[in-house]
């Protein structure tokens, strides 16, 4: 049985996929990306004898939103397995937007995702991943470098996981307190995989929703997702859990806003286990006028040392990403 290493899914963008001005939500695109990655990695991990399994999302690398997508366009999502370790799969996903009236096409997203396969017979058992054949030794070495780098980064982000977002009484305009937001969601069967755990794409869509509310509250304009820094899935979320998705502004530049988002899960059936941090990420948004042109972002007002520390960390990430983008442009 030959299972292809590539998959392709087209989908027409509907009004419920977009915001009030017709831009497709970043969360909708992230959900499509995750579905394509989940399909190809689950297919691949079931090409060997033994336990049947489902691939669960463990991490999404930094993802830039290169061009906006609009209602009526066709999203073409293609996924390819590029590296396998003993217990994980690296998937590269590209998203292309097609205007079916003019035939014009544009690349809107390129993403790298990591999946881990779990047994259907025992949800805590991680299955060994069948190896793939590489086009060259260089490709395999490059994949190994990515694998080691993302492992280190995942460990670093776990250190931040104790932080909580506290409500602020009578917050001032343009402060962290005025825009911070949260959303509570009861996890139902339609949110979950065959294993009874939440799809990574569902979680990312909720995170993007909250980050979007924070950004809109801060600048009171149309806002769009510009990029998402690495999203780390620290622990699985079970069907029946209540998830609290919280977001707060950490940094503003002249034209962008960084929002930190946490996902905390609470298992109502096993209440004695308490709430736990499941996912963390940083989203970057830009503010747009009615013609879709970038607007200046109101500066974030800092009120204490903690906020100043987060602002400086955000500024460092912003400058690093800016330098990377310039280096990539020069290479092209």
Question: Layout of helices and strands, plus pairs?
Answer:
Elements: E1 6-12, H1 26-45, E2 53-60, E3 63-65, E4 74-84, E5 89-98, E6 105-119, H2 137-158, H3 176-179, E7 181-186, H4 200-219, E8 222-228, E9 231-233, E10 241-252, E11 257-267, E12 276-288, H5 305-331
Antiparallel strand pairs: 1-4, 2-6, 2-9, 3-6, 3-8, 4-5, 5-6, 7-10, 8-12, 9-12, 10-11, 11-12
Domain HotDog ACOT-type: 3-121, 177-291
Protein name: palmitoyl-CoA hydrolase
Region (Disordered): 293-314
Question: How does this model look, in words?
Answer:
This protein is α+β, with helices and mostly antiparallel strands. It has two domains: 6-138, Hotdog Thioesterase (Thiol Ester Dehydrase, Chain A); 176-331, Thiol Ester Dehydrase, Chain A, CATH 3.10.129.10. The protein has five helices and twelve strands. The protein has helices at residues 26-45, 137-158, 176-179, 200-219, 305-331, and strands spanning 6-12, 53-60, 63-65, 74-84, 89-98, 105-119, 181-186, 222-228, 231-233, 241-252, 257-267, 276-288. Strands 2-6-3-8-12-9 form a six-stranded antiparallel β-barrel. Strand 10 (241-252) and strand 11 (257-267) form a beta hairpin. The chain is globular, with a radius of gyration of 20 Å. The mean pLDDT is 92. This is palmitoyl-CoA hydrolase. Keywords: Cytoplasm, Hydrolase, Lipid metabolism, Repeat, Serine esterase. It is found in: Cytoplasm. The active site is at 19, 208. InterPro entries: Cytosol_ACT, HOTDOG_ACOT, HotDog_dom_sf, Thioestr_dom.
